[in-house]
Amino acid sequence: MRKLVPFAVDVVLVVFFCVLGRNSHDEAVLGAGLLRTFWPFGTGLLLGWVIAVAVASGREGVSAARRFDGRAVWPTGVILWLSTLIGGMLLRAVSGQGVAVSFVLVAATFLALFLIGWRAAVQILRAR
């Protein structure tokens, strides 16, 4: 159960990212609108988790999946950030949602802060 906490934190932060974005454009932050904004990034996040576990397993063998630490900045946090960003933007484009360059830059910054930032903070606190 403890292994799912980092995944849950990531989901909450991606939902929060979507809420912030919708709120900044005076759009409804609950209901179908939020789901429409969340699903591309949520799918990218889920794919990132699959990739991160596969990378750990490939490097260290199948038993690595049991030892996998979802709190690691590298490579886990970076994989999750890139997968959420790239996957989210590709799915938004395919589904007819906007992917303006300014939005990509804002999303890249916020998702890095959220998905890598909390992991870095945990590592710093654990090192003390």
UniProtKB/TrEMBL annotation:
Keyword Transmembrane helix: yes
Annotated transmembrane regions: 37-56, 72-94, 100-122
Keywords: Membrane, Transmembrane, Transmembrane helix
InterPro entries: DUF3054 (IPR021414)
Pfam families in the record: DUF3054 (PF11255)
Name listed for the protein in its UniProt record: DUF3054 domain-containing protein
Organism: Nocardia yunnanensis
